[in-house]
Design brief:
Elements (H helix, E strand, L loop, with lengths): L1 H20 L4 H4 L1 E16 L9 E16 L4 E8 L6 E12 L2 E9 L4 H4 L22 H8 L5 E11 L2 E8 L15 E11 L2 E12 L15 E13 L8 E12 L8 E14 L8 E12 L8 E12 L5 E11 L7 E11 L1
Antiparallel strand pairs: 1-2, 1-16, 2-3, 3-4, 4-5, 5-6, 6-7, 7-8, 8-9, 9-10, 10-11, 11-12, 12-13, 13-14, 14-15, 15-16
């Protein structure tokens, strides 16, 4: 029912916009609204024993609709994005960005926190299909899942952020509720403070670093029930490097992303620390103009994660070779083989095959 209501609202909004845009309308003349969307249809199968009852499936991984607003003066931008994939309707982005100066802007609403190059890379551009280990039935986590699910240092949240660019340096400093996305309001007095800087050293080379401090003032049972009512701080750090043509598949060349993460893992305990490393590499081959295939991009991801540095049984390695076949600059078929190797004694290696068609409007 929520999906139907959302579709009706978007349809009415589009009709009103198209009608008023051709008339004498002050708002239409002084602003621009752009509609966009993406559809990711996926098939996935795995050999994980825990998933014997259902170890293969077709599903709609993402079905997103977005509307972006920008006024003619360039002093204000806004975005609303919903995801209708996986059988639900969920707000992904909803924010206003006030552009006071290229060096100083203010963003308020729900959007991604400034942490992790890998997490901040859009799924319309990523070299492999999934950022984390999403093998059906698997309980092991990648470094990305530790910082987004265990610590809530990365991913979407509700808050305010100042950001801008000074010469070759971009900066982001924000304060967030710290509870993740789509929460009605904060549930304690603790906040998450995060910052990120990116230095564009050369045209195709950049370095980044992020830090995040999450204050929890009302402990939950998975941390320490004896400390209810008290507070504690959880810290995480990240450093990254990016080199190459990035997502510009109209060029032939390499694209490399790598990052290291380290910090406190509150979902394990108030004393546990995590660490992780991920390397992603690809080489895009642009084909001749007029061909049915626009370009081909083989890629590989190697991810090492340890949820508790004092417990060797929490170590995990995820390797994903794959290939992207582009039909134009945005639309592609992706094929990935996920190989998940737990470092726990006696644990089996897990395999998964994933095929995804990505349409971007």
């Amino acid at each position: 029912m929520r999906v139907v209501k959302l579709m009706l609202c978007l349809t009415v909004f589009a009709c009103v916009w198209s009608t008023t845009n051709g008339q004498e309308n002050v708002v239409a003349k002084k602003s621009k609204v752009t509609f966009a969307g993406r559809l990711h249809g996926q098939f996935h199968t795995s050999n994980v024993e825990a998933a014997e009852d259902m170890n293969n499936t077709f599903y709609v991984r993402r079905a997103r609709l977005a509307a972006e607003y920008k006024n003619s003066a360039g002093t204000m931008k806004a975005k609303v994005q919903y995801d209708l994939g996986e059988g639900g309707a969920k707000l992904k982005d909803g924010y206003v960005d006030v552009i006071l100066d290229p060096k100083f802007n203010i963003k308020l609403g729900q959007y991604k926190k400034p942490f992790s190059l890998w997490e901040l890379t859009s799924t319309t551009k990523t070299m492999v299909i999934e950022r984390g280990n999403h093998l059906i039935g698997s309980s092991w986590k990648s470094s990305n899942q530790i910082i987004t699910k265990d610590g809530l240092y990365a991913g979407r949240d509700i808050g305010a952020m100042v950001h801008g660019q000074v010469e070759k340096v971009k900066y982001y400093i924000g304060v967030f509720n710290g509870n993740g996305d789509n929460k009605k309001s904060d549930d304690d007095n603790g906040k998450l403070i995060g910052g990120r800087v990116v230095l564009s050293a050369l045209e195709d080379l950049s370095f980044g670093a992020s830090v995040s401090n999450r204050t929890v003032s009302k402990y939950q049972s998975f941390i320490d029930t004896t400390k209810n009512g008290s507070s504690d701080n959880f810290l995480a750090f990240e450093a990254d490097l990016e080199y190459g043509i990035k997502d510009k598949v109209s060029r032939t060349g390499p694209w490399v992303q790598t990052e290291v993460v380290y910090g406190s893992n509150p979902i394990i305990s108030d004393e546990a620390n995590f660490m992780g490393f991920v390397f992603l590499g690809s080489y895009n081959v642009k084909l001749s103009e007029g061909e049915k295939i626009y370009s081909v991009r083989p890629a590989i991801r190697v991810d090492y994660a340890q949820r508790d540095t004092d417990d060797d049984d929490t170590r995990n390695i995820l390797v994903t070779p794959g290939v992207d076949i582009f039909f134009d600059k945005y639309n592609r078929v992706q094929i990935n083989l996920d190989v998940d190797m737990s470092q726990k004694d006696g644990a089996d290696t897990e395999f998964g095959l994933r095929v995804q068609y990505q349409m971007h409007i």
